[in-house]
Design a protein that fits this description.
This protein has 264 residues and is of the alpha/beta class. Helices cover 41% and strands 22% of the residues. The protein has one domain (3-158, 178-209, 255-263): Vaccinia Virus protein VP39 (Rossmann fold). It has 11 helices and 9 strands. A 7-stranded mixed β-sheet has the order 3-2-1-4-5-9-6. A two-stranded antiparallel ribbon has the order 7-8. Strand 4 (118-124), helix 6 (133-143) and strand 5 (144-155) form a beta-alpha-beta unit.
């Protein structure tokens, strides 16, 4: 069974709090080759839309907003939603301006909002966890105004390919247990979206990782598979990562990440 869209596992274990997500964000901030931060790239596109009422679903601990406060507009009304209470608790403590931000525990498949309440909805690397994408997109469409925008970020099948190959070599059981990209990705995303939205455009964010330290990559692996990995496998990962760094100077990991921008 792949746990990528098992609500109980995601809510109670994987996203019980922000620790796992924070470990994954750290590796991208520390070792990305593109000098432009991913969240800044997203917010630049948000600003171009000039939306006043914004909904982010699966907002996690609000990393996009807390790190880029200077890009926020005080006259915006931004609703940050996540189905994990632990995530929303962390987001609410981020020091974001109270006049602009609201924090709500809710599921994208049953949004607690009126019709046409928002100008823009953002789903930043979370849709591959959703059990029923059709229900999720119908809910997002319902709460958007006519002509409103959905920004849906996801990865391609080859995202982090070298890491996935490393995991397959050392602990193939882990990829069978949790492999998030297969559900909603850059390759199949448009097929899901076109039933609900129009003018679907895909923008690619070009980037990769050059990792020259063992622990951050080991932390990333543990953030995904820590509940299923054995002590022996952790040692094997540690040794193999160190061997590659000793031999090549760093581990190159390609990214394949992008953003679907579409209209209601």
């Amino acid at each position: 069974m792949n746990l990528r869209n098992d609500p109980a596992f995601l809510r109670k274990i994987q996203y019980k709090n922000s620790n796992n997500l924070a470990a994954r964000i750290r590796i991208h901030k520390q070792f990305s080759t593109n000098p432009l931060d991913w969240n800044v790239w997203i917010l630049e596109r948000v600003q171009k839309i000039n939306a006043q009422r914004i909904l982010e679903v699966g907002a996690g601990h609000a990393s996009m907003w807390r790190e880029n406060n200077s890009l926020n507009h005080n006259n915006e009304h931004i609703f940050l939603n996540d189905f994990s209470y632990g995530m929303i608790k962390s987001a609410s403590k981020a020091g974001l301006p109270a006049q602009s931000f609201r924090f709500i525990v809710s599921d994208i498949q049953a949004l607690p909002y009126l019709r046409t309440q928002f100008d823009l909805a953002i789903a930043n690397h979370m849709l591959y966890h959703v059990p029923d994408l059709s229900l999720a997109f119908s809910e997002v469409k319902r709460v958007l105004v006519q002509g409103g925008t959905l920004m849906a970020a996801t990865n391609g099948i080859d995202h982090m390919k070298e890491l996935n190959e490393l995991v397959e070599r050392i602990a193939p059981n882990l990829m069978k247990t949790l492999n998030v990209t297969r559900n909603f990705n850059l390759e199949n995303g448009k097929e899901f979206l076109r039933e609900f939205f129009t003018d679907i455009q895909l923008e690619i964010f070009h980037d990769s990782l050059e990792i020259n330290e063992v622990q951050p990559l080991l932390d990333y692996i543990l953030s995904l598979w820590g509940n299923f990995i054995t002590i022996e496998q952790v040692k094997l990962f540690n040794d193999e990562i160190q061997n590659i760094i000793n031999k090549d100077g760093s581990i190159h990991i390609q990214k394949h990440t992008g953003l679907f921008v579409c209209r209601k």
